[in-house]
C-alpha cells in the first residue's frame, strides 16, 4: 500500500464519518437524515431520494414529494420502519415530517451516538494505518527498501493517521455543538 493510497483511504473514512453524522437529526429539518431510508419499490430496496423530491420548506418540516404517486404508501411505510424516529403525515399527494424540538435527554443520546460514529471512523483510520505499516514491513523484509526508509515511511503514515484523526475530532466537535444548540 502506497502512502498516497493510505491517505486516500483515510480521506474516504473521514467522508464516510461525515455522511454518518449527517443522518443524525439536530432539531432542525435536514433532508440528509433520510439518506439511509430504503423503500421496497417493485421488490427491490431503493433509496428514498431516488423515488421522491425532498425539501425543507421551513426549519421544522421535511416535505417528501414522490415522483410516482403510487409509491406514497410505500415511502410512508419505509419511514415508519426506519430508525429516524419521526412519524410521517400523508396527505394523499405528499408526506410531511414534522421535526419536534429535541429534549436535553435526547440531545445527550444523539451526542453519544455521534461520538460512537466518530470512534468507528477513527478505528477505520487506524486499520488503514496498520495495513500500510504491514505493507512497509513486507517491503523491508523482502529487501526492497532499507530499514531507514521503512522507519521514515512508518513515521509518515503515523503523521497521516494523526492528521485524519484530528479531522474526525473536529467534525465531531462541530456536530456535538450543532446537536446541543437549542
Description:
With 182 residues, the protein is of the alpha+beta class. The protein folds into 2 domains: 3-21 and 103-180, Topoisomerase I, Chain A, domain 4, CATH 1.10.132.20; 28-98, Gyrase A, domain 2, CATH 3.30.1360. It has helices at 3-22, 72-81, 104-141, 147-180; strands spanning 38-41, 44-47, 52-58, 61-66, 88-90, 95-98. The chain has a 4-stranded antiparallel β-sheet, with helices on one face. Strands 1-2 form a two-stranded antiparallel sheet. Helix 1 packs antiparallel against helix 3, helix 1 (3-22) runs parallel beside helix 4 and helix 3 (104-141) packs antiparallel against helix 4. It is elongated.
Secondary structure: elements and pairs:
Layout (H helix, E strand, L loop, with lengths): L2 H20 L15 E4 L2 E4 L4 E7 L2 E6 L5 H10 L6 E3 L4 E4 L5 H38 L5 H34 L2
Antiparallel strand pairs: 1-2, 3-4, 4-6, 5-6
Helix pairs in contact: 1-3, 1-4, 3-4
Compact overview of the structure:
With 182 residues, the protein is α+β, with helices and mostly antiparallel strands.
Order of helices and strands: HEEEEHEEHH
Q: What's the arrangement of strands in the largest beta sheet?
A: 3-4-6-5
Average of per-residue pLDDT values: 88
Q: What is the first-to-last residue Cα distance?
A: 45 Å
Number of strands: 6
Structural class based on helices, strands and sheet pairing: alpha+beta
Q: At CATH's second level, what is the architecture of the largest domain?
A: Orthogonal Bundle
Q: What about the largest sheet?
A: 4 strands, antiparallel
Strand content: 15-25%
What is the CATH superfamily classification of the largest domain?
Answer: Ribosome-recycling factor
Helicity level: 55-70%
Structural domains: how many: 2
Shape: elongated
The CATH class name of the largest domain reads: Mainly Alpha
Number of helices: 4
- CATH overall fold name of the largest domain: Topoisomerase I, Chain A, domain 4
Amino acid at each position: 500500500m502506497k502512502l498516497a493510497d493510505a491517505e486516500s483511504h483515510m480521506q474516504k473514512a473521514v467522508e464516510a464519518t461525515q455522511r454518518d453524522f449527517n443522518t443524525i437529526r439536530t432539531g432542525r429539518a435536514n433532508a440528509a437524515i433520510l439518506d439511509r431510508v430504503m423503500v421496497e419499490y417493485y421488490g427491490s430496496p431503493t433509496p428514498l431520494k431516488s423515488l421522491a423530491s425532498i425539501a425543507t420548506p421551513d426549519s421544522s418540516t421535511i416535505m417528501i414529494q414522490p415522483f410516482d404517486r403510487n409509491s406514497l404508501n410505500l415511502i410512508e411505510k419505509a419511514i415508519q420502519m426506519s430508525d429516524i424516529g419521526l412519524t410521517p403525515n400523508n396527505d394523499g399527494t405528499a408526506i410531511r415530517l414534522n421535526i419536534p424540538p429535541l429534549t436535553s435527554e435526547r440531545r445527550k443520546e444523539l451526542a453519544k451516538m455521534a461520538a460512537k460514529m466518530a470512534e468507528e471512523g477513527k478505528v477505520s483510520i487506524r486499520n488503514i494505518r496498520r495495513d500500510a505499516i504491514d505493507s512497509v514491513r513486507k517491503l523491508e523484509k523482502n529487501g526492497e527498501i532499507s530499514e531507514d526508509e521503512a522507519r521514515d515511511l512508518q513515521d509518515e503514515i503515523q503523521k497521516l493517521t494523526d492528521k485524519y484523526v484530528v479531522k474526525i475530532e473536529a467534525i465531531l466537535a462541530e456536530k456535538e455543538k450543532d446537536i446541543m444548540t437549542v
